[in-house]
Design goal:
Elements: E1 2-6, E2 13-18, H1 22-41, H2 44-60, H3 62-73, H4 77-95, E3 105-108, E4 111-119, E5 122-126, H5 132-145, E6 149-153, H6 160-171, E7 179-181, H7 186-195, E8 199-205, H8 208-219, E9 224-228, E10 234-237, H9 243-255, E11 267-271, H10 275-287, H11 307-314, E12 321-324, E13 338-340, H12 348-351, E14 358-364, H13 367-375, E15 382-386, H14 390-399, E16 404-407, E17 426-427, E18 440-448
Parallel strand pairs: 5-6, 5-8, 6-7, 8-9, 10-11, 10-15, 11-14, 13-14, 15-16
Antiparallel strand pairs: 1-2, 3-4, 4-18, 9-17, 12-13
Bound molecules: NADP nicotinamide-adenine-dinucleotide phosphate and magnesium ion.
């Protein structure tokens, strides 16, 4: 069976990709399992050097990978280039891991006790369409570094960069069976990762509903699972913040990647005394967002991924619109950045993850009200706090129930630091110094030294 990859900016056919069948998925998993003993036995320094070589070769293909992502996903040129750089950085960061995969020596009576971090075996990575390259890299880089073999399923919409990354990996010295990319359907390939006993761990990023099914499926075999799911993130703006700066930054915190970002700050909470002033600055900033051909260096927002996604997002437009930006007309899945003023915190746009260029704004009264409103959601991924009172900003940061927060900026993702959610936004953390724990089992060994 084939899949037609469509360019979301103009609806043209990019290419056709063969979907992996159930039987071919099983064969790939068997090959990954067979390749595991040899890959885990590669000396740490050698595995590190192979990963560094992989990173260098991704860097060498930077413009080709960026062009592919622009065509396949409609990402702006600026974003696509950053995304390739993020994969390079992530692979480089975890290339240092094989040589530092330390266990412990624990004082005990009558002997010596040591721990080892053992790789798991075959790791199955299921990737969504919103950030095809970075999300793949956050899984495969630490998984491979820890000595696991990887089968990776990209989203049906966006398989091209993952396929290219696998090709580059193989040319860099990672054996073909150690890292396999299997384009295909979630219900076939993704689900087989969950049910196949030789896949020892699932890394899933995507919707909360599919994440729930995957977690339930993994329970059958007590399969390890990391979940990065949806978000309904708050951008909390206090009256004592640099209001102009907060307003100028707010559009990019939600319209970047056309809002198709689990970290999008889709709920703007503004202190009541500063509400009108904020909205004035915010309107100017939203109208200045450049929504245009993603190929252009100047483009700040491209199209949505698909007609289906566009229709889903447009279904939220039945609430009062404060103002909108602009968007191209004609072919492609385009939508103007849109600012809603929901009636209250029960409005659908305030509660559901929209995953498109739509943001809702509500006022709050004081610190306690801001915290209560921010936490009034089933999600808990990310958020921002704007205040020049750093004591307050930190108090609020400790009270907001999310995994990734930023103060006086909106950026969430750094490959050096842990990323993941509270509540229904997920389970476990990716990136940062501890990511290897999610790709290894601790083994404890006691050696009797008593006579
Ligand atoms: P999704 O269904 O959760 O898809 C994510 C990945 O899981 C894709 O690779 C998908 O494959 C695969 N998948 C689907 N069903 C599966 C199953 N039963 N078993 C194993 N794998 C399965 O997300 P979506 O339908 O593309 O998007 C729907 C909504 O999810 C969005 O509107 C957004 O709200 C949310 N979302 C969140 C994130 C995030 O970063 N947190 C990312 C994407 C989407 P296919 O491509 O073949 O479906
Ligand atoms: Mg789906």
């Amino acid at each position: 069976m084939n899949y037609q990859v469509i360019n979301p900016a103009d609806e043209s056919l990019v290419t056709t990709v063969e979907l992996t069948s159930f039987e071919a998925t099983d064969e790939a998993i068997a090959r990954a399992h067979a390749a595991f003993p040899k890959w885990r036995a590669v000396a740490p320094g050698e595995r590190a050097e192979i990963l560094r070589n992989f990173a260098r070769n991704i860097e060498a293909h930077k413009s080709e990978l960026a062009d592919l992502e622009i065509k396949n996903s409609g990402h702006t040129r600026g974003n696509a280039v950053w995304e390739v750089g993020n994969v390079v950085n992530t692979v480089n960061y975890y290339s240092a891991a094989p040589e530092r995969l330390f266990g412990k020596q624990i004082p005990v009576p009558n002997g010596i006790d040591v721990t080892f971090k053992e790789p798991l075996g075959v790791v199955g990575i299921i990737v969504p369409w919103n950030f095809p390259m970075p999300i793949a890299g956050w899984g495969f880089a630490p998984a491979l570094a820890a000595g696991n073999t990887v089968v990776l399923k990209p989203a049906e919409y966006t398989p091209l960069t993952a396929m290219k990354l696998a090709e580059i990996a193989h040319k860099s010295g990672i054996p073909a069976d150690v890292f396999q990319v299997l384009p295909g359907k979630g219900s076939v390939v993704g689900n087989r990762f969950v049910t196949h006993p030789l896949v020892r761990k699932i890394v899933f990023t995507g919707s909360t509903s599919v994440g729930q099914q995957i977690m339930a499926g993994c329970s059958d075999q007590i399969k390890r699972v990391t979940l990065e799911l949806g978000g309904k993130n708050a951008n909390i703006i206090f009256a004592d913040s640099d209001l102009e700066k907060a307003a100028a930054a707010a559009p990019y915190a939600v319209f970047d990647n056309a809002g198709q970002d689990c970290c999008a700050r889709t709920r703007i909470l503004v202190q009541r005394s500063a509400f009108d002033k904020f909205m004035e600055h915010f309107e100017r900033a939203v109208k200045n967002v450049r929504v245009e051909d993603p190929n252009l260096e100047s483009s700040e927002m491209g199209p949505l991924i698909s007609k289906k996604q566009l229709e889903t997002v447009q279904s939220y437009l039945d609430e009062p619109v404060a103002f909108t930006g602009s968007a191209p007309t004609g072919k492609g899945f385009w939508m103007a950045p849109t600012v809603l003023l929901p009636k209250d915190a029960q409005a659908r746009s305030w509660r559901e993850e929209v995953f498109g260029p739509v943001v809702s704004v509500l006022p709050f009264d004081d610190e306690a009200d801001a915290i209560a409103k921010a936490n009034d959601t089933e999600y808990g991924l990310s958020g921002s706090i704007w205040s020049q009172n750093i004591g307050r900003a930190l108090r609020v940061a400790r009270a907001v129930e999310v995994g990734v927060l930023s103060i006086n900026t909106n950026s969430s993702v750094r490959f050096w630091t842990p990323f993941g959610g509270f509540k229904r936004s997920g389970l476990g953390r990716e990136l940062g110094p501890d990511a290897l724990d999610a790709f290894t089992e601790v083994k404890n060994v006691f050696i009797n030294t008593a006579e």
